[in-house]
Write a structure and sequence with these properties.
- Helices cover about 30% and strands about 35% of the residues.
- It is of the alpha/beta class and about 280 residues long.
- It folds into two domains: about 5-120, Flavodoxin domain (Rossmann fold, 3-Layer(aba) Sandwich); about 130-275, Electron Transport, Fmn-binding Protein, Chain A (Pnp Oxidase, Chain A, Roll).
- The chain is elongated.
- InterPro entries: Cyt_P450_sf (IPR036396), Pyridox_Oxase_N (IPR011576), Split_barrel_FMN-bd (IPR012349).
Length: about 280
């Protein structure tokens, strides 16, 4: 998905909603309906309208520029009774359907806006499952690095651990003496891991995040020796250590890679692979 423009009705509430939607969708900007729009820069347009309906009269003028855009409409009011009616009127003005219509209540606008943004995201092209070139780019990046941040948490507590890794066929392995992260991992078997290059410019972006489920591998388990060998730790060295090295295995559910190299192959900057 390309860039998104969130157009709001000119008041404080619809501006807040437009800003929140844009931040969740990513690669977004927001503008009041009275501003001059550079439509060519955006693939998706999100309209955020309130009871004043100030932008409604502009749809006829906008119509030619919007025929091939992805369109979402968020109605912000105290009641939901007018959402479909207003959406139908907008569609009549534009001569085409809206892709997403959602209600954002004045009382519960934060949660409703997040749900609306998630609904819009769900209409995007789904993550790839079997694009070998995308997976190869991710694994090449991982092979050129050895350290990232393991993110764990439970309830309102979160923790980030800089840690070395080895990666093999959809699983990250981390050796650790122990520590606070284990409190969260025992209670919550879901974790995320991220690796990135230092930023230089937008033509050289590279950052990967992986999400998955955790399991533990201890000395004596069949996998332990194989993983130690992958890490370059000999059995002799392990036997000589005064403490145990635990192994955390993160079995990846999905990886998302933001890499400028994708643009050179005609793909979007951000690619997600499901395992």
């Amino acid at each position: 998905m390309g860039n998104t423009l969130c157009i709001y009705d000119g008041d404080v509430q619809t501006r807040q909603i437009a800003c929140l939607v844009g931040s969740v969708l990513s690669m977004s900007a927001y503008a009041a309906y009275t501003e001059t729009m550079n439509w060519d820069r955006y693939e998706r347009i999100v309209f955020v309208m309130g009871p004043r309906q100030a932008m409604f009269s502009h749809f006829a003028a906008w119509q030619p520029a919007l025929q091939h855009k992805k369109l979402a409409f968020l109605w912000n009011d105290f009641q939901n009774i007018y959402t479909e009616r207003i959406a139908a009127a907008i569609q009549a003005r534009l001569g085409r359907p809206l892709d997403v219509t959602a209600f954002v209540s004045a009382e519960n606008w934060l949660d409703d806006t997040i749900r609306a943004a998630q609904t819009i995201q769900a209409r995007e092209k789904g993550p790839v499952h079997d694009d070998g070139a995308v997976l190869q780019a991710m694994e090449t990046f991982l092979a050129g690095h050895n350290t990232g941040v393991l993110s764990t948490g439970w309830g309102q507590e979160v923790h980030g651990t800089p840690i070395e890794y080895v990666y093999k066929r959809g699983t990250f392995y981390f050796f650790s003496e122990g520590g606070r992260k284990f409190i969260y991992l025992y209670r919550n078997g879901h974790a995320a891991f991220s690796i990135c290059d230092a930023f230089t410019d937008v033509q050289h972006l590279a950052g990967l995040q992986a999400e998955g489920t955790v399991r533990f591998i201890e000395p004596g388990d069949k996998e332990y020796g194989r993983i130690a060998a992958l890490k370059g730790i000999s059995q002799k060295r392990l036997a000589a250590m005064p403490v145990v090295l635990h192994v955390i295995a993160l079995d990846v559910v999905q990886m998302t890679f933001v890499w400028s190299g994708f643009l050179r192959t005609g793909r979007s900057l951000r690619q997600t692979y499901l395992f």
